[in-house]
Design brief:
Blueprint lengths: L2 H14 L11 H12 L2 H9 L12 E7 L8 E8 L2 E8 L12 E5 L1 H9 L4 H6 L4 E3 L2 H5 L2 H13 L11
Helix pairs in contact: 3-7, 4-7
Length: 172
């Protein structure tokens, strides 16, 4: 097989092979990838230790962040668990919600319409504006969150950094 034939064969395979499918935004699969992206972000892994955010876990050893797209339902579909590991605020688990009882003084639940998650993921606006305009639903320790707006902005950017689809809802 010459180079031209090899190139044609590879092109045919690329067309026939399914593209690596991205998962729906805010799905358990998306949360796994978001967990990995979290751990590569020095603002999230560093500043959330410096501020004491990650240490506020009520002795449990981790914080829970649950997320969902409000136009897809009213219950969380993605979860990140954050813990202090090796001096960093590390994501130690990402996936579908595990059913743990949330602690309102420690854990967070955030929701937004799909279009708003996309806008926040692009960096069109940050968490303060999103909450003030009612674009981001938020339950959790508000004063703690207010003291961590810089890292929180980086967290919202994960919605744009982690490959996803928005044409279907998680689990549907």
């Amino acid at each position: 097989m010459n180079r031209k034939q090899l190139a044609a064969a590879l092109a045919a395979l690329a067309i026939a092979a399914p593209a690596s499918a991205a998962s729906p935004l805010m799905s358990g699969e998306w949360a796994q990838a978001a967990c990995e992206a979290w751990n590569r972000d020095p603002v999230l892994t560093g500043q959330l230790v410096e501020s004491g955010w990650v240490a506020n876990d009520n002795g449990r050893g981790y914080k829970i962040l649950q997320l969902y797209r409000s136009d897809c339902g009213s219950t969380p579909t993605a979860e990140l668990r954050i813990a202090l590991r090796d001096g960093k605020a590390a994501c130690v688990g990402g996936g579908a919600p595990q059913g743990a009882k949330l602690d309102g003084g420690v854990d967070y639940v955030m929701s937004a319409e799909t279009a708003r998650w996309v806008e926040m993921g692009r960096g069109d606006y940050g968490p303060m504006r999103a909450m003030l305009l009612g674009r981001l639903g938020f339950d959790g320790p508000k004063l703690e969150a207010m003291g961590n707006m810089g890292p929180f902005a980086n967290f919202l950017l994960l919605a744009g950094k982690v490959a996803s689809t928005t044409g279907s809802c998680p689990g549907k």
